[in-house]
Amino acid sequence: MLGLIRESRRFFLSVTLAGLALRLLFFFYYPAVTDDSRIYADLATNWLHHGIYGQTLGGQTRAGAQGNQILPVDTRLPGYPAFLALIFGVFGPGNFKAVMLAQILVDLGTCFIVADFARRAVSARASRIAFVLAAFCPFLANYCAAVLTETLELFFTALALDCAAAALNRMDERNDEPMEALPIAGKQRLDKQVSDTQKSSGRLLWAGTGLAIAACILLRPDGGILLAAVLLYLAFLYLILLHPKLVIWKRCPGKADPPEVAVAGIVLLVFALAPLAPWTLRNLHTLHHFQPLVPRYANDRDEFVPRGFNRWIKTWMADYVSVEEIYWNVPGDKIDAAKLPARAFDNAAQRDATLALIADYNEDQDMTPELDARFGELAAESIHAHPLRYYVALPLLRIADMWLRPRTELLPCDPRWWEFNDEPKMSAIAVGFGLLNLAYVAAALAAAALATLFSRHSTIRWLGLLVIFLLLRSAFLGTLENPEPRYTLECYPVIIVIAAAGLTRSCKVNGCQQRQSALEDGLQCRGTSSGRTHCTMRRLAILTAYTLSLGLTSCGKPSEEILTEVKNGPFKVDVRSQEFHRSGIRNIDICVADVASGQFPTDSGQCFLHGFDFSGLSVKWVSERNVEISFACGRVSRFSNFAVISKGRPLPVEFHATLNDGCNATQNRSAVPQ
After folding, report:
1. Confidence band (pLDDT; 50, 70, 90) for 526?
2. How many CB atoms lie within 10 A of CB 525?
3. Quick check: 478 pLDDT over 90?
4. How far apart are CA 241 and CA 255, in angstroms?
5. 471 — phi, psi (to 5°)?
6. What is the DSSP letter of 423?
7. Which of 41, 506, 600, 645 fits a 20 to 30 Å CA distance from 573?
8. Cα–Cα distance between 393 and 407 in angstroms, integer?
9. Does residue 395 surpass a pLDDT of 90?
C-alpha cells in the first residue's frame, strides 16, 4: 500500500484533504452528543478519576454529604469508555470536541485500510476507487462528529478484514524461484524453509486479525459476528481443500493445506477471545456473575426489562420511524396510538384491546410487570395467528429498512422524509442521502452479481468471506426490535470494496485498461500537465486551509454564552454557561473576581468549578470569603474549594467554596439558566 501511495501521492493527498474537509463540515455544523454518549462519558470519567468502571447514581453526579455514589455495572463493554478515558486524560474531562477530532483522524485511517483491503482483494485501480468512495462517504463522515462507537468499530472491522485478506493471500503465495540448478535435497530444504516462513508470518497475520476482532467485540457485542463470519469461511475452505470438487470459484489458496487452515482458525479464535478474559473475570469478581459480553438489553441485574412489550413491538415493527415515535418513548413518555401502523392490529377486537392497554400505560408512563404481561399476551396472539409474518416477513422488512432508508438519523431531518413535511433544505438532504445510500448498495450488489453469476472466475478474491459477513450481520439485525440504520454501517467497508471492484470491471469493459478510472482522472485534472495539477493542488490546499482556519477560530467560540454575577462588596462570583456548536451540552464555569473586572477570569487559580449538564444550580455568598455552590444533579469535571485573586494586588486574597446538593438558599444568590 505504501508503494501505491508513493506512486500516486498527489491523488491520495488530494482525496485525504477533501475527506478531511467533509468531516470537519459535520464537526462544525452537526455534532451529536446523545444519551448513550453521556453514559459512555460517565463510565470513562469514573474509570479515569476513581478507578471504578461504573455509573454515578442516575447517570449523573449527585453531590451530597457522602460524595459521589458510583455503581459498578456491566451494561456497556469497556472498549469505547477506554478510548474516551484516554482522550479525557490528555485533553481534559468531558472534552467531546477532542473526541470528535480524534475520531476524524481514525476515520481517515479507515479510508486507507479500506483502500489496502481493496488492493488485496481486487487490484490497485480498485484501491484508488475504494479510497475515494470511503473518503467521500457522508455516512462515515457523519459519525465522526458523534460521540458513539461507530467510527472505532468501522476502523477495527476494516483492519480485521484487511489482516484476514493478507493472511489468506499469504496462503496463496507460491515459490516461483528457479531451482533447477539445486540438487533435489537442496530444493526440498529451500522449499521447506520458504513454507515455514510463510506459515509463521501467516499465523502472525491471523493473530492480528483476532486482535482486531477482539477490539470490535470490546466496542460492541455484535462485533462477534465478524469472528463467526471468518471462522465459517475457514471452515468452508477446510472442506474445499479436503474435497476439491466442492470448489465454485478458482480462488482458493493454492499452497494451503487442511492442517494449516485449522491452525489459522485456532489462532484466530484464541486471539479474538483472549482479550475478553479480563472483562469476564472482572464481572465475576465485582458483580458475582458470569458475563463475557453485556446483557441483551444493556440492563442492570436488578433492572426490569419489558420483554412482553419488546415482543409486541416485534409483531409489527418494520421501520426506523416507529423506533423514534414509539419504541424510544417507553418508559417515560406517552405512546401516541395514532402513530401505530395498520399492521399493529389484526382485527377490531385486537385494536380495541391494544388501545385500551396503551391508555392504561399513558396514565403514568411506567411499564409495570402487569402491563408488560398484557403486552406479551397481545404479542402471543399475533404470533400465533401470523407466524410467517413474525419470523420471516417483518425481519426482512426491518433488514431492508436498515439498508435502504436515508442515513439521516444524526441530522435534523424529519424521519418521515417521504411526506416532505420538513423544510426544503432538510427534505433535499434526506432525498439526496437516500439516493446516495442506494447507489452504494446497488453498486455493490451489481458487482457481486457480475463477479459470480456472469464470470467463470470471481474477480473479487475471498468474495465468499465478504458475502458470509453481510448475510450473517443482516440476519442478526433482523432479530432486533429497533431497526436503526447505523447498525448496518459496519458493513460499509465491504460494500465499498465490492462496489470499487464493480467500477473497476466496468472501466475494463469500456476499454480503459491503459488509463486510470474516470473518477481518478477527474481528481487529477484529467491531464498530464504539471501546471494544471499544481493548480488543482493549490486550490485544494487553500480550501482545506480555509476550512481549518474556520475551525480554529470558531473552536473556542460558543454558539450560546450566558454570564451571571453574584456580587459581595468588592468581589463577585462569575458564573459562565456555554453551549458549543449546538451540541446540547451546557458547560459551566464558576470563578471569583473583582467587581471592577469586566471580563471572565482567565486565571484558573480563580476558579472553583467546571462541569456540564447541571440542573438546579445556584451560587451564594455565606460570608465575606466563603461561597456556597449548590445543584441538584450534573457532571462535575473539576472542583476546588480554594481560589485566589492575586493579579494587581500586593497580597493575594483567598476564597473558599463548599459544594452540596441543597438548593434552598435564597439570599444573594443567582439561579443559572439551564
Report:
1. very low
2. 18
3. yes
4. 10
5. -70, -45
6. -
7. 41
8. 23
9. yes
- In angstroms, how far is the first alpha carbon of the chain from the final one? 51
Q: Tell me, what's the pLDDT at 189?
A: 52
DSSP code at position 412: T
What average pLDDT does the segment 568-586 reach?
78
Please return the burial class of 651, using the count of CB atoms within 10 Å of its CB with bins 0-12, 13-18 and 19+. exposed
CA 408 to chain centre: 15
Q: Which amino acid is at 364?
A: D
Q: Which residues contact 234 (CB under 8 A, 6 or more apart)?
A: 261, 264, 265, 268
Q: Output the nine-digit C-alpha cell for 501.
A: 471492484
Ordered DSSP codes for 559-608:
SEEEEEEEEETTEEEEEEEEE-TT-S-EEEEEEEEETT--S----GGGEE
Across 9-32, b (16+ Cβ under 10 Å) vs e yields ebbbebbbbbbbbbbbbbbbebbb
- Alpha-carbon distance of 258 to 509, in angstroms, equals 37
**Cα 168 from Cα 264, distance rounded (Å):** 10
Neighbours of 288 (CB within 10 A): 8
Per the CB < 8 A criterion, the answer to whether 507 and 517 are in contact is: yes
Which pLDDT belongs to residue 164? 95
Rounded CA-CA distance 494/251 in Å is 18
SS3 526: coil
Q: Would you state the cell numbers that stand for residue 564, as one nine-digit string?
A: 451571571
Distance (Å, rounded) from C-alpha 454 to C-alpha 502?
Answer: 12
| Of residues 659 and 664, more confidently modeled | 659
CA dist., res. 150 & res. 487, Å (int): 9
Tell me the DSSP string of 293-338. Answer: S--TT---TTS---HHHHHHHHTT--SHHHHHHTGGGTTTS---GG
pLDDT in tens, 623-655: 989 999 988 877 777 788 888 888 777 788 889
β-bridge mates for residue 671, sequence order: 618
Residue of 155, 263, 252 lying closest to 207 (CA atoms): 263
Cα dist from 555 to 28, 180, 551, 603, whole Å: 8, 67, 5, 20
Phi, psi of 571 (to 5 degrees): -120, 165
Q: Is the peptide bond before 331 cis (omega within 30 degrees of 0)?
A: yes
User: What are the angstrom distances between the C-alpha of 362 and each of 332, 340, 353, 432, 582?
Assistant: 9, 15, 14, 37, 32
Judge contact between 238 and 266, C-beta under 8 A: no
CA dist 225 and 213 (Å) reads: 9
Q: Is the dihedral of CA 466, 472, 478, 484 positive or negative?
A: negative
Interval 109-124: pLDDT, tens: 999 999 999 999 988 8
What span, in angstroms and rounded, lies between the C-alpha atoms of 419 and 633? Answer: 40
**Cell output for 279:** 472483562
Separation CA 581–CA 589 (nearest Å):
18
Instruction: Kindly state the cell numbers that stand for 123.
Output: 487490484
Mean pLDDT confidence for 249-276: 81
Distances (CA, A) of 1 to 8, 9, 12: 11, 11, 11
635 contacts 622 by C-beta, under 8 angstroms: no
**pLDDT over threshold 60, residue 174:** no
Neighbours of 387 (CB within 10 A): 10
Neighbouring-strand partners of residue 578: 561, 587
Identity of the residue numbered 314: K
For residue 490, the SS3 value is helix
Helices vs. strands in the chain: H and E counts, helices first: 23, 12
Return the pLDDT at 1. 76
Shortest CA distance to 444 belongs to which of 403, 481, 410, 407? 403
Name the one residue in this structure whose C-alpha cell is 472498549.
Answer: 79
Residue type, 303: E
